[in-house]
Amino acid sequence: MIIKEYKALFVHVPKTAGQSIEDFFLSSLGHNRKEHGASYLLRPKTKFEEGPKRLAHLTINQYVDYSYITEKAFGTYFTFAIVRNPWDRIISFYKYRGFANLVSFEKFVISYLPLYIKNEHWFFRPQADFIFNEQNELRIDYMGRFEKLEFALSVIASKINIDFKELPRSNSSKTESILSSKSVHLLRKHPEVLFQINRKDSKNKISYRDYYSKKSKAIIDNIYKRDIDLLEYTF
């Protein structure tokens, strides 16, 4: 999200409250997503453009490499992102895509997550890919944490001289009914799930840690090792 009015650039890492943050900045300008979002790159890319399927999820390097902002302007903008505990973030993916209604978390991690990483890498890729370069150097001015979101937004707001009181919540992940539209869509895409239904992981979970076995944790440790190392998270 390029916010020219504030000379700010928000790198939206998927499943880190990004839509809520985008809506906050749009609202601060008297705008809304439906009418004005496209002007801030909150839209799908066209066939003539480079980048991810949805331009809101451009990496910091892609903004410049694909000429969404000039190198000169980039150097004058305040750049920021929010990151999240990698193990917790995967739980959010699990719920967001509707798997929590139908299959166990371990089944999701073993059988489906690798497929989605391959086919939708732009969405499921490590968070570090969005804000670090290949030399593992942080390329943004401020990296806030999802776990301290209100504090992070207060810091960001102070940097660009706007008021911050509270953050609207948009697009949050939750476990829905087994007959929800999201679940029906998932069953159409993966009909084999119908024979694997196991909803035991959709209830009685308090912490993200409650979802993990040694096996599923080891898989996430390996896939998102760069996040664990560079973002300095522990299980």
Outline:
The protein has 235 residues and is of the alpha/beta class. It is 40% helix and 7% strand. The chain contains twelve helices and four strands, in the order E-E-H-H-H-H-E-H-H-H-H-E-H-H-H-H.
Descriptive report:
By secondary structure, this protein is α/β, with parallel strands linked by helices. It has 2 domains: 1-84 and 127-172, no CATH class; 85-121 and 173-235, no CATH class. Helix content is 40%, strand content 7%. The chain contains 12 helices and 4 strands. The chain has helices at residues 18-28, 33-36, 60-65, 71-74, 86-96, 105-119, 121-124, 128-131, 149-159, 181-189, 214-223, 225-230, and strands at residues 2-3, 8-11, 78-83, 142-145. It has a 4-stranded mixed beta sheet with strand order 1-2-3-4, covered by helices on one side.
How do the strands line up in the largest sheet? Answer: 1-2-3-4
Work out the strand percent.
Answer: 5-15%
Q: What gross morphology would you assign? A: globular
Q: Taking Cα atoms only, what radius of gyration do you get, to the nearest Å?
A: 18 Å
Total count of domains: 2
Number of strands: 4
Indicate the mean pLDDT: 92
Largest sheet: 4 strands, mixed
Low-confidence stretches: none
Contiguous helical run count? 12
**What letter string, H or E per element, gives the SSE order?**
EEHHHHEHHHHEHHHH
**Proportion of helical residues:** 40-55%
Distance from N terminus to C terminus (CA atoms, Å) equals 30 Å
Provide the structure class.
Answer: alpha/beta
